[in-house]
Amino acid sequence: MTQEPAGGGLPGSVVLGISVVDDQIASVVRDADGHILASNLVDLPDPSAPAVETAIVELVESVPVVVDQIGVSVSREDVRKHLAQVFASETAAESWYDRVVVTGYASALAEIACTHATRGGVVAVVDLDRDAAPAAGTALATIDTTSGAVLGTADFTTNRLAPVTDPDGASELSTAVTKLPRGRDITSIIVVGPGAELPGIAPAVEYAAQRPVTVAGNPSLASAIGAADAALVALSAPAAAPRVSTGRRWWFVGAAIGAAVFLGAVGLALLLAGEGETPEPVSVTLTETPAAVTVTADATTVTRTETETQARTTTVTTAPRPVTRTTTVTEEIPGPFTVTETETTTIEVPAPGEPGQSAP
């Protein structure tokens, strides 16, 4: 079976796209022009991660053509992590392991949106299982068709919704869409998966969501085609810059210090050369303030701060105040003692020539 190319592939590459959604594996082989050379649908009796690994190995080894790249998109995160670890192992069991690119299912949904959207802007893509309910895992996403960016996803691994053929299930899906980033801004909804082939799906979802609904062409294989495109996008993306070793970073630090020293030496040499030359007279404006002196010259401003300290010493001399001290000593004279009384008689003698007086 052949199909017109959706987006083409890498020049000269044949890609095997594998999608693991719920309990089903869908696969397509696309040539370099995007034509589908072969396709396959496998029901998984055991959806566990080891069982999925075994089924993919058997599928790859049964492909009738040689493939250059293998893209695997998985809706359940636990299975995706298991497959990514197995196929990235350095002790690969098969030679083709290094050609496998494992991506989340949101990457495949983004490629589906960019391929099947009939309106631009933001669209929602949902994968419906056989019962027309959103498939287990990451089965719903909002996509910006302008850039192909995944804006938001919803996971239904544990919180399963009712089939959208039931009005309540369609309303639940519409509510889940509006809760996603830019969910209220979507221009349309794209449905894929085996449930999208059931009659009345588009009108039921369109009535609940009040948005146009598109059923992808060949909806059961759309996820596998999206997986192939997602692998090509991942391979064509620019490689991440190699990690710089610690020693290299230290070398860059040393180089920066050396450059700083060199520039400092150059600046010092220029300064010394400038001092050796005779400067031309320049006008100088001197502004004096009590605290600072600013000298302004052409092309150069020098600020010099002068600090003046005044000290005043005051000597206060205090003369000693004379102190008069009086001491009273009382002496006691022990008795008995003798008192001598002296009687003094004054005799007046007349001067010569004066009449005398007789003594009494």
UniProtKB/TrEMBL annotation:
TM spans (from-to): 250-273
Alphabetical UniProt keywords: Membrane, Transmembrane, Transmembrane helix
Region (Disordered): 323-360
Membrane as UniProt keyword: yes
Composition skew (Low complexity), residue ranges: 323-349
Source domain of life: Bacteria
The protein, known as: Uncharacterized protein
Organism: Gordonia westfalica
Record lineage: Bacteria, Bacillati, Actinomycetota, Actinomycetes, Mycobacteriales
